[in-house]
Amino acid sequence: MATVLYITAHPLDPQSSYSLAVGKEFIEAYREANPRDEVVHLDLYKENIPQFDADVLRGWEKLRSGSSFDQLTDAEKSKVACLEAIVDQFVAADKYVYVSPMWNFTIPPVLKAYTDATSIPGKTFRYTENGPEGLLTGKKVLHIQASGSVYSEGPLAPLEMGYSYLNKVLQFYGIQSIEAIFVEGTALKSQEQAPAIKEKAIAHAKEVAKCF
């Protein structure tokens, strides 16, 4: 049995979001194909993801300097413990499905905060005398990304910093099996064509779900 983190980063619902609509169909098809696997949905807009603020940085520095957890302030304890739980849950999973729109050429801020929370030395990577080494080898990722224009190829490809950023971070963790489904170009087409783009992406997602 595998554990799948289904990580969504959109404040709306599948009826209003192309990325969530495709993600919903993917995860339903995945559950049907893998009934024994555990799927954990993390709606990042409903999760408490501490920012790397003064409490977090000071708390970590105190711990590195030899202070015990009990010696931290209440704010430091709360935020440091929350970040520890987030990264431990991430490390324990076997597969990851990220679902997000492209906003301003990249991922939403809440997904960036989650990525920061999972980029912890000694958890997802470590430093060695030969440089950093990823610790999450053997895991799998799918990223479903929606955008109004086409960024996966063509003249706007150099501006794509959503999937490309996430892909680089996950490779840094040691993950090599990374797939993407792009739901793109919906703002460039007529209202009659945009639903067809979504349906094509859903069909692709259902096929990917069978072997993910």
UniProtKB/TrEMBL annotation:
Keyword Glycoprotein annotated: no
Details of cofactor binding: Binds 1 FMN per subunit.
EC number: 1.6.5.-, 1.7.1.17
Cofactors that this protein relies on: FMN
Domain Flavodoxin-like fold positions: 3-205
PANTHER family referenced in this protein's UniProt entry, alphabetically: FMN-DEPENDENT NADH-AZOREDUCTASE 1, FMN-DEPENDENT NADH:QUINONE OXIDOREDUCTASE
Known partners and oligomeric status: Homodimer.
Family (UniProt): Belongs to the azoreductase type 1 family.
Name this protein carries in UniProt: FMN dependent NADH:quinone oxidoreductase
Annotated organism of origin: Paenibacillus allorhizoplanae
Top-level taxonomy: Bacteria, Bacillati, Bacillota, Bacilli, Bacillales
Gene of this entry: azoR2_3
